[in-house]
Amino acid sequence: MLLHSDSIYKQLEQEFLTPDLDLLSPHLWLVATQSRSHIGPLHEQVLKGRAIVITENPDLHLTWTDNRIFIKPIPRYMLSYAFWTTYLNPVSTNVAKATEHYEPTQALIKAALGYMRTYYHLIQHESDLHIAKQSRLLPTDNDDITLETYHHFITGFGDIQNNQASPRYSAYGTLRLARLNLWAKIFTPPLWFSVATLLCICAIGSVMTFLLLFMLLRELAFAIKGILQRQRAQTGLCAPGVLP
Predict the structure, then answer these.
(1) Which of 112, 149, 113, 111 is nearest to 129 (CA)?
(2) Which residue, 59, 179, 204, 229, has most beta carbons within 10 Å?
(3) CA–CA distance from 100 to each of 10, 77, 94, 96 (Å)?
(4) What is the pTM of this model?
């Protein structure tokens, strides 16, 4: 049965959109290696001593600290081919029928594709699949998910190009949380801070302009004074009846 409301898209936007990280994406090279495949499989995360912590916040997906990595589980519906063709395919004729002509935004589709591509890298081996099930990153009551069936489903997402993914996922994988928090405060300050900074810059600019104008006028006055003094000296030397 198809849903006849745009509420499903609102829910999907809350699940997958990362507007803050997209805004910060030009500066993410300060936080992580600039590579979409910079995502170690789950067994490597365990080898590094990182505990897998479930998060439902898309901004925290694949962020890590020294001993933890935050990963957003795959919702059950995202493993459904029918769901993708119905709700996340902008060219599907079912989309308009399902949602009264409400279509998914490109931002939502790119965010969902980028998110799913991360799981192409996270689960590569049988051990990764076991860890994913044990950590509840995959639906635990679905015993039909084998490594073969999983690879058959996920391989297509591994071919997603950077321009098909959202800015957060286009060129970055795991992000170091401490660095992310630091640079986020610098590049995405709160509105009051931005306004105060702008006012300070304007005030400093006005003062600097006044000082520069004052210095230029002073130099001009000195130049004019020098010219007048030289003219007076020359007039005095050349005046008739005056002996040297």
Answers:
(1) 149
(2) 59
(3) 14, 21, 10, 5
(4) 0.70
